[in-house]
């Protein structure tokens, strides 16, 4: 029997080895054909390889990571959802889904996109319909104070329609969405960590947003046949008001964004310094760049009125292109050459370095942030002099996380691995130390990782406990659910010398980046404040108010009843329902659905929401509570009678 067991173990290992070889091969083909097919390496696997791989790949099943029933996780993970358009909240290390926060999508559970309040945040067209119903969230980052999270806000980008959204940490709901003018493909985003000039402002006041795609400026039908005239803007949004502060026109594109801990610089890696409009053109140059922005200089220009505007937008635009900035001493931008077609730029938690991953080069580029001001002061000849290491890490490096002990963890898309390497050793090697041990470990992840991110890794409190590897293909890791497989979020314990894979979690397509936040940092409120809602319904104003065919129904809910058992309307009425939940018990939420009228939303304790619609068909309709609230939840309903 033990023979059999060994045999099947060997078979499994052979399958895994075969699969890895296959991956490696397609990876090389991908590179040889200039990267075009590299994303598909995971899809072309022959079907026979589909067999459980756990056990043989070092999954520490009894690793002590399990959270027993009734026990709480030690971390929150806030993740993007890609073209799902929402944000997700997951408990770690268990991988329990705690919440989905609708943002750029619509959601009929909470009524996001249905209530007047949420529609005002998303934005509507003159005819009242939602301006957009799709979104593509990639990057979630928190607001900072003193170099760590302050539990005020989370920010997330929408790549499709170039919008920045803010989520309140206390309610974990979206409260603002801002569209960036003259930007297409808003991809990288990062809040600042303190003010570039006033050190007493040691918290987030700006959010930097990178534009990825070149576009006509303005995009009104001009220059369609001449992409050489198209441009890219890097934007700065006020974190408190969520209004645009300024934009900076650049050469090349923006991919991801990082900010320094001293607040002086933001930077974006660029894979298209060629300013090309086609694939071959974007891969023509041997090196691309990481462009740094001197925030204080940009804001001084804006203050001095040295800006232009584009089209109908009133946002000040400064010129950060190379031709407009010949002298480093006055330049607002610094283009540091980095490895070809880089992806990702990440700040080390000691505040010293930015790391760009090569993607089409098997290297990471380490930029010493103390040398950036030297370049801006004219003390360095070449921006490239700020590069202090370029270690070879493996194939297809995309994103880098840190453990706070001087080590970096880079995802290797083509190798399907996470590589652990030491930053100071890489710097020593770059200086010529041949004995420097740069690569410390390589661990397989399943399969083809995009982002990875570590616990508190984007803060000075980086604790080096966990690393999440967000993998783009799960293949045989889970029960099949049709042609589209779930993605894997794999949890690695990085507290020891060797990273250990400790859990596979599924993820619905398709998360990119996230942050892992210690649970004590997160402060949520238990119920809402009645006073926060100017339209709150109380016993004083509850009832039905009619002005011609415009009707306002003001309702209260208290388990298990709405305040009006019968509501009479006439066909053709324009009706607004405003509902305030007067229950005060945490989690005692009610729903509000009207059959055939496409209305459903929830009201949390002490919260107010409203909907407006035309009563365009007659009949009797039971308004009912959709959210289980009470033993008499099913009885919680009112008759809506619409006369024909
Ligand atoms: Cu690598 Cu949009 Cu951050 Cu996805 S991006 S993986
Ligand atoms: Cu109220 Cu269910
Ligand atoms: Ca390029």
Secondary structure elements and their pairing?
Elements: H1 2-32, E1 75-80, E2 86-92, E3 96-102, H2 116-122, E4 140-145, E5 148-158, E6 163-168, E7 173-179, E8 184-191, E9 206-213, E10 232-238, E11 244-250, E12 257-259, E13 265-270, H3 279-282, E14 287-294, H4 295-303, E15 317-319, E16 333-339, E17 343-347, E18 353-357, E19 364-368, H5 372-376, E20 387-389, E21 397-402, E22 407-412, E23 417-422, H6 423-430, E24 439-444, E25 449-454, E26 466-471, E27 487-493, E28 500-507, E29 514-518, E30 543-547, E31 550-558, E32 561-562, E33 566-570, E34 574-581, E35 590-594, E36 599-603, E37 608-614, E38 619-624, E39 637-643
Parallel strand pairs: 11-15, 31-34, 33-39
Antiparallel strand pairs: 1-2, 1-29, 2-3, 4-5, 5-6, 6-7, 8-9, 9-10, 10-11, 12-13, 13-14, 14-16, 17-18, 18-19, 19-20, 21-22, 22-23, 23-24, 25-26, 26-27, 27-28, 30-31, 31-32, 34-37, 35-36, 38-39
The structure holds sulfanyl-(tricuprio-$l^{4}-sulfanyl)copper, dinuclear copper ion (CUA) and calcium ion.
């Amino acid at each position: 029997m033990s023979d059999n067991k060994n045999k099947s173990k060997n078979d499994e290992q052979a399958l895994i080895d075969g699969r890895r070889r296959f991956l490696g091969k397609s990876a090389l083909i991908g590179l040889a054909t200039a990267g075009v097919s590299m994303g598909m390496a995971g899809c072309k696997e022959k079907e026979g390889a589909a067999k459980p791989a756990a056990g043989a790949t070092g999954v520490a099943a009894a690793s002590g990571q399990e959270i027993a029933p009734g026990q709480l996780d030690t971390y929150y993970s806030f993740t993007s959802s890609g073209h799902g358009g929402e944000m997700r909240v997951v408990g770690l290390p268990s991988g329990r889904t705690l919440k989905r926060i609708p943002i750029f999508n619509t959601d009929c559970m909470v009524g996001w996109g249905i209530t007047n309040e949420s529609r005002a945040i998303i934005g509507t067209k003159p005819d009242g319909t939602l301006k957009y119903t799709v979104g593509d969230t990639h990057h979630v980052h928190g607001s900072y104070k003193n170099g760590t999270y302050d539990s005020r806000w989370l920010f997330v980008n929408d790549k499709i329609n170039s919008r920045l959204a803010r989520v309140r940490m206390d309610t974990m709901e979206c409260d603002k969405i801002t569209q960036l003018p003259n930007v297409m493909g808003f991809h990288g985003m990062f809040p600042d960590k303190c003010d570039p000039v006033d050190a007493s402002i040691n918290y987030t006041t700006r959010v930097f947003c990178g534009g990825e795609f070149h576009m006509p400026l303005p995009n009104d039908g001009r220059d369609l046949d001449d992409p050489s005239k198209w441009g890219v803007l890097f934007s700065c949004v006020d974190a408190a008001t969520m209004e645009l502060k300024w934009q900076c026109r650049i050469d090349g594109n923006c991919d991801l964004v990082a900010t320094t801990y001293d607040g002086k610089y933001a930077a974006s890696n660029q894979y298209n310094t060629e300013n090309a409009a086609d694939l071959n053109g974007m891969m023509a140059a041997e090196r691309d760049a990481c462009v740094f922005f001197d925030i204080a200089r940009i804001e001084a220009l804006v203050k001095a009125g040295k800006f232009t505007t584009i089209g109908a937008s009133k946002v000040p635009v400064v010129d950060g292109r190379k031709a407009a900035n010949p002298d480093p001493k006055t330049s607002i931008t610094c283009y540091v050459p980095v490895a070809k077609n880089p992806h990702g730029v990440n700040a080390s938690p000691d505040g010293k370095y930015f790391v760009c991953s090569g993607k089409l080069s098997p290297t990471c580029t380490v930029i010493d942030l103390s040398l950036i001001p030297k370049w801006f002061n004219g003390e360095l000849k070449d921006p490239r002099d700020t590069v202090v290491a370029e270690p070879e890490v493996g194939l297809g490096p995309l994103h880098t996380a840190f453990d706070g002990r001087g080590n970096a963890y880079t995802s290797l898309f083509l190798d399907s691995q996470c590589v652990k390497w030491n930053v100071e050793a890489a710097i020593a090697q770059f200086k010529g130390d041949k004995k420097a041990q740069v690569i410390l470990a390589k661990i397989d992840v399943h399969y083809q990782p995009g982002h990875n991110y570590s616990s508190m890794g984007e803060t000075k409190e980086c604790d080096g406990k966990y690393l999440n590897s967000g993998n783009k293909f799960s293949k045989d890791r889970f029960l099949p659910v049709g042609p589209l497989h779930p993605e894997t979020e794999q949890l690695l314990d990085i507290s020891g010398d060797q990273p250990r894979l400790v859990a596979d979690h599924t993820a619905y397509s398709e998360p990119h980046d996230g942050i892992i936040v210690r649970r004590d940092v997160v402060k949520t409120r238990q119920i809402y404040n009645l006073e926060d809602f100017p339209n709150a319904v109380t016993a004083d104003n509850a009832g039905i108010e009619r002005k011609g065919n415009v009707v306002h129904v003001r309702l209260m809910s208290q388990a298990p009843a709405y305040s009006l058992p019968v509501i009479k309307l006439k066909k053709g009425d324009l009706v607004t329902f405003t509902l305030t939940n007067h229950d005060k018990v945490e989690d005692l939420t009610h729903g509000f659905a009207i059959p055939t009228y496409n209305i459903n939303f929830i009201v949390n304790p002490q919260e107010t929401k409203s909907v407006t619609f035309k009563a365009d068909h007659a009949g009797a309709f039971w308004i009912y509570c959709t959210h289980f609230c009470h033993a008499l939840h099913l009885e919680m309903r009112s008759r809506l009678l619409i006369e024909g």
